[in-house]
Amino acid sequence: DIVLTQSPGTLSLSPGERATLSCRASQSFPSAYLAWYQQKPGQAPRLLVYGASTRAAGVPDRFSGSGSGTDFTLTISRLEPEDFAMYYCQQSGRSPPFTFGPGTKVDVK
Amino acid sequence: QVQLQESGPGLVRPSETLSLTCDVSGTSITSGYFWGWIRQPPGKGPEWIGTFHFGMVTYYSPSLQSRVTIDLDTTMNQLSLRLTSVTAADTAVYYCARQAGVYESSQWYPAQFDTWGQGTLVTVSS
Lengths: 109, 126
Known about the structure:
The complex is a heterodimer. By secondary structure, chain A is mainly β. Helices cover 0% and strands 49% of the residues of chain A. Chain A is globular and about 40 Å long.
C-alpha cells in the first residue's frame, strides 16, 4: 500500500504570506493520480488540484501543485482569509487502496 | 450541475448493518465516471471505502472488503453502501463522491474525487 505523509502537520502563517505544503509517498506512482483537497470545518473536501499540477475548475490561480515520483507540493502564493483550512493529498490509480494523507492545517499566526 | 446527496440512518447499533444511499442528480451514474464512498471519523482525515464503475470492476479498501458492498441502482440513479457488523470504530461522516478517471494502457483507472456530497454522520452506539 502507498502511504502518504504530509508536512508540516500545522502551518501558522499570516494573510498575504506564502504557504508550502508537502506530500511524500512511501513509493513512487504516476503524478496523474495525485490530488489535493481543501476542507473547512463542517464541509466536504473540495478538489483543488489533480494530476499533481492541474487546478480544478474555479480554483484561484494562487493555488499551484507540483512534483512527481514520491514528492509533491501544494503552494498557495498569497494566503487569503478563506484559505485557512485543512489540506489533504490523495493518491489513486492502478491498484487500491486509494489513500489520503493525514493532512496539513493552515491556521492564522 | 452535478449534485450528490447522502441519506440513511444517523444511528446504527453495534453488530448491525449500516446502509446508505447517494442520490445523484445532474448526470447519469452510467455516464462513464467512477463513483466512490469515503468516510471521515470525527477529528480525523478521510478514509477511502470503495469505488464502483458501471460495467467495470469494483474496488474496495482491503481493510473493509469483507464487510462492504457498493452498488448502483440505475433506475433511481443512486449509489448505495452497505457495511455489515459495525462497531464504534465505524462512526464517521460518510461521503459519496464522483471520481474522474485516467485513461492509460487501454483502460480507465480511478483518479481524483471531483464532486462530493455534503456527507452524513453515522454514529454506531447502543
